[in-house]
Amino acid sequence: MLKNSTTFFRHAALVALLAAATPAVAGPEAAVPTLRYTLSMPAPQTHYYEVKMEFGGFPAEYTDVKMPVWTPGSYLVREYAKNVEGFQAKTTGGQALAAEKINKNTWRVRHPKQTNFQVSYRVYAFDLTVRTSFIDGEHGYLNGASIFMYPADNKSLGSTVVVEPAAGWTKVSTALRPAPGKFTFKSSSYDELVDSPMEIGNHKVLEFTANGTPHQVAMFGAYNAPDDTKLLADMKKVCEEAHRVVGQNPLDHYLFIVHNLERGGGGLEHLYSTTLEVSRNAYGSEASYKSFLGLVAHEYFHLWNVKRIRPVALGPFNYDQENYTNMLWVSEGITTYYSKIINERAGYTSREEFLNGLANDISTVENTPGNRVQSAAESSFDAWIKSYRQTENSRNSEINYYAKGDLIGTVLDLNIAEATKGEKHLDDVFRLLYDTYYKKANRGFTDKEFQDAVAQVAGRRYDEFFQNSVYGTKTLDYATALGYAGMTLTSEPLGGGTLGANFSNRTGKLLVTSVVRDGAAWNGGLSVNDELILINGVAPGEESFKTLVQSPVGTEVKLQVRRDGLLRDVTLKMLPNPDRRFRIQPAANPTAAQKRVLERWLGPQI
Predict the structure, then answer these.
(1) Distance separating alpha carbons of residues 581 and 495, to the nearest angstrom
(2) For the chain, which has fewer Cβ within 10 Å, the N-terminal or C-terminal residue?
(3) What's CA 295's distance to the chain center, in Å?
(4) If you average pLDDT over every residue of the chain, what do you get?
(5) Rounded to the nearest 5 degrees, what angle is found at the Cα of 374, between the Cα atoms of 368 and 376?
C-alpha cells in the first residue's frame, strides 16, 4: 500500500486542479411549492361543500393528503374524515391520477413526473356547532379542520383560499387576510387556515374598535338585542378590560362570529377570531346578557391564554392524534376565572354578585364526588377520553378542568397578592409568560416553567401546593386565601336524608339515571336504568315519591325495581346529605393589608 501512495496523491491533486478549473454547471432550481384551495357550495340545501386543491411544485412520486381527526381548542378525536366523499386526483390537464386511501384520514396521490396536480372532494356538513361545519339553504359555517385537507409533509406551507359562495350569498367573514380577487384569502400555514373559521351568507356585520384594533362581529340569525350600539359598546369594554390583564395587543384585526340560535352552545377560540353560539334571546334579560358578556370575555381572553400563552403540547399541532397536556386547567380553567374577573372589573358584575358566584362555584366543585378522585392535571390529560364522553358515572369519577382550574386560579391569585403585599397578582404571571415564551422563545411552556413563573412573580415557591392540589386531590385552602382579601368563608350542610340517586320519568317509567358515590343507593345496590316499580309496597306516584325523597335520615326504604326484565327487591337506609352550601362574606374590619390584596384582586370598588 505504501509504495503506491505517491501515485495516488498525485492523481488526487490533478483531479482537484481540474475540478477547480472547471466552471460549475447550475442545475434546474426546484420549484417553490404552492397550494390553492377553492371552496364552493353549488347546492347548499344538500349540506355539502366542494373542495378543490391545486398543488404546484410537488416533485415527489406521490403526495399524502390528510384530513385532521380533531380541531384545536376542542379536545376530542372527532374523525372529520368520516364526512368526506368523492376523493379524486387529476393532472392539470384533467387526466386521472391514481389515489388510494391508506388509513382512516390519509389519501395517497401518485403523480410521477407531475409536479402540478389537483385533488377534489366533497364534505357533508350538517352539524352546527363551534367545533364542526354546517351548510344549508340559509348560510354556511365552517371550522377549517373539518373541511380542508393538507399535504402531510408540507403543513407549514402557505396557501390561497378562494371562496365561491352559494347563489345569492354576498358575504364571507373570516379572519384570514385578503388576497387579490373576490372572496380570495391567504394563509401563512395550515395551522392558520385551520384557525380561521368562516361564516358565509347574508349575515349582518357590525364593527367597533378596541385597543386601536378594528373588530368585526358577524351576526347570523335573528336576535333580540334592542340596541346594536349598546351591544357593541359593551363588547368593546369587555375587550379593553381583557387587554389590561396582559397589557400587550398582538392583534391587527379580530372577528367575532356569533350564531344566534334557539339554544346556545358555547364558543371556540381562534388566533384572530372566535365563534360564539348563543340563544337568540340572550340579549333580552339581565342575567342572560351578562352570561353572553361572560362568553365574550372567555373566548376573547383566549387570544392570549392558549393561542399565544400556551402549554408546550398545544402547538405546533399534530392533527393525526391526541395532543396531551396536564395544563388544560390553566388554558381553560383560568380563562374561565378571568372571564369573571374581567366582567367584575369592567363593572358588569357587582362585587357581591362575583363573590356569590365564587361561593356557588366552590359548592359545585366540593360537592362533586369526582373531585376527590381525579386531580385537575389528570382531568386535563384525560380530556380526550373522558371530558367529552360523559357517562352516568362521570360525576363520581371526574372533576371538570374548567371548574377546578377556575378555583385554582382564584387561590393562586390571592396567594400571589398576599406574598407581594398587594403589589402583584396572577396578571403578572401571564405578562411574564407572554414575554418569556411567546415573544422571546416562540414556544409553549412546560408544567415546571409555569410553576417557575408563579414563583418568580410571588417571590416564593408553591411546589407543595401544585403537588397536592393540582397534581393531587387535596382540597384547596379557600378560607386562608380568601382571608388574605378580608373575606370569610363559611359552609353549612344542606341537611336532610338522601338516597344518593337521581330519577327521571321516561315514557311513563320512573328510571334511575345516576347513583352518587358512597351514598345509600351506591352501597345498597341500586343501579342506573333500574325501573322503580314499588316504594314501600306502593306504586310510585307524586305523593309516594315525595314521601321517599323527604324521608329523614335512618329511614329504611324498601324498593322493588325491574332490571333486565326481572323484578328485584332492594332495601336502603336514608343517609345524611353530604353536600354543603358555601358562603363568602366581607370581614367587618379588614386590615390595611387585606384591603391592598382585595384591591389588587378585584380592582377598586365601582
Answers:
(1) 10
(2) N
(3) 12
(4) 94
(5) 95
488: cell is: 370569610
What single-letter DSSP state applies at residue 217? E
Question: What gap in Å lies between CA 216 and CA 224, rounded to an integer?
Answer: 19
d(CA 294, CA 421): 29
Predicted confidence at residue 32, as pLDDT, reads 92
Q: What angle do CA 587, 591, 594 make, to 5 degrees?
A: 80
Phi, psi of 450 (to 5 degrees): -65, -45
Grid coordinates in use for 519?
A: 351514598
- In this prediction, residue 230 has a pLDDT band, given cuts at 50, 70 and 90, of very high
Between helices 335-345 and 228-246, what is the axis angle to 10°? 120
Q: Is the pLDDT of residue 3 over 50?
A: no
Residue 22: what pLDDT?
Answer: 38
Tally Cβ neighbours within 10 Å of residue 447.
Answer: 18
Q: What pLDDT is attached to residue 265?
A: 80
pLDDT at position 545 is 85
Band (4; pLDDT cuts 50, 70, 90): very low
- Res 295: pLDDT: 98
Q: Which amino acid is at 68?
A: P
Cell of 542: 307524586
Q: How many CB atoms lie within 10 A of CB 301?
A: 28
Q: What is the pLDDT of residue 264?
A: 86
Look at 105 and 603; give whichever has higher pLDDT: 105
Q: What is d(CA 553, CA 250) in angstroms, rounded to the nearest whole number?
A: 58
Report percent pLDDT > 70 for the chain: 95
Helix (H, G, I), strand (E, B) or coil at 37: strand
Q: What is the mean pLDDT of residues 221-231?
A: 95
Kindly state the average pLDDT of the residues 244-266. Answer: 96
At residue 210, the 3 state secondary structure works out as strand
E strand map for 235-352: 254-261, 266-269, 273-279
d(CA 305, CA 75) in angstroms, rounded, equals: 16
* In contact, 423 and 600? CB cutoff 8 Å: yes
* pLDDT of 8 above 60: no
Q: Regarding beta strands 159-164 and 34-40, do their DSSP bridges make them parallel or antiparallel, or are they unpaired?
A: parallel
Q: Which regions of 431-573 does DSSP assign to beta strands (E)?
A: 487-493, 497-498, 501-506, 509-515, 531-535, 556-563, 566-573
